[in-house]
Specification:
Layout: E1 4-7, H1 15-24, H2 26-29, E2 34-38, H3 40-49, E3 56-58, H4 61-67, E4 72-76, H5 92-108, E5 115-116, H6 122-128, H7 135-147, E6 154-158, E7 163-166, H8 173-179, H9 182-198, E8 206-210, H10 225-239, E9 243-248, H11 256-259, E10 264-267, H12 270-281, E11 286-290, E12 296-299, H13 316-329
Parallel strand pairs: 1-2, 1-5, 2-4, 3-4, 5-12, 7-10, 8-9, 8-10
Antiparallel strand pairs: 6-7, 6-11, 11-12
Length: about 350
Amino acid sequence: MQPLALTLGEPAGIGPDLALAIWRRRAELDIPPFYIVADPDFIGRRAGQLGLDISISIATPQSAAAKFRSALPVVPLDIAVSAEPGRPDRSSAPAAVASIRRAVADVMAGSAAAVVTNPVAKNVLYHWGFAEPGHTEFLATLVREATGKWVRPVMMLWSPELAVVPVTIHLPLKDIFKQLSSELVVETGRIVAHDLAARFLIANPRLAIAGLNPHAGEEGTLGDEDRAIVAPAVAQLVADGIDARGPLPADSMFHPQARASYDAALCMYHDQALIPIKTLAFDHAVNVTLGLPFVRTSPDHGTAFDIAGTGSADPTSLVAALNLAARLAKAVSPVPLGTS
């Protein structure tokens, strides 16, 4: 298998710390081979700041796996990174974006098995002029630039205990009602069912669809959206041959007996999905982007500027992201691209 392409993420954050720490413990953690797309001099400086005696080797994707045993492979960026731990600077955003671009290009060219992204600081990207809402949307843009085809990326948070998908993501609560539609629920459900089968090799994925309102609307007495939007979407998914049920009261979907009855929960908004999984799997949940023609995972945490450069960051979620990426990349069924 090809190595995994790990992005730099926000260089002032904990992403570089975690990459160095994980490589140092590679045998103990049984990590699949990866390379980081970064400025080699910056990675060397960060290793020194952390007091780590680590060999770093400038690599290509093709040479990375062979070098991984003896040195951390770094596929170099043409951008010098000057950011210090906890202090983003003008090199932060261009380096983070260039690293994502290179990792995606590598995986689409077949030189890398999957993309694993370290966390970025959205406010730093936005101040630089980054036009996308976040990582997920940027990945779809890169696919379109490379292929001319449109894909609809779907964010899934996965852990052994629970997998959740927010149908709407980073929206104020007042705007959810304007964006949520039966079509959006159906499209999301189809992508989730397809990728659970194709990537996770679940033969007949079971989807639990949460209601939007308390008690899934209580037959319309607590809001009509569940009858008017969610229920027709569930009916369409069932008509498509997908094992879907709902709308279900979200307050009773996440206890152990309920979780055993489905493979993924589709939730109508961000916190409805992320509160339960962060409660159950805060340190080891993985962000997986579905609907792409390649595998992308990410740790489910942020840049943690306050502890960057201290060596105290917990690598558990990034380890889980690397292992899940390697597992999913072995699946043989590709994700079909949409049409322009």
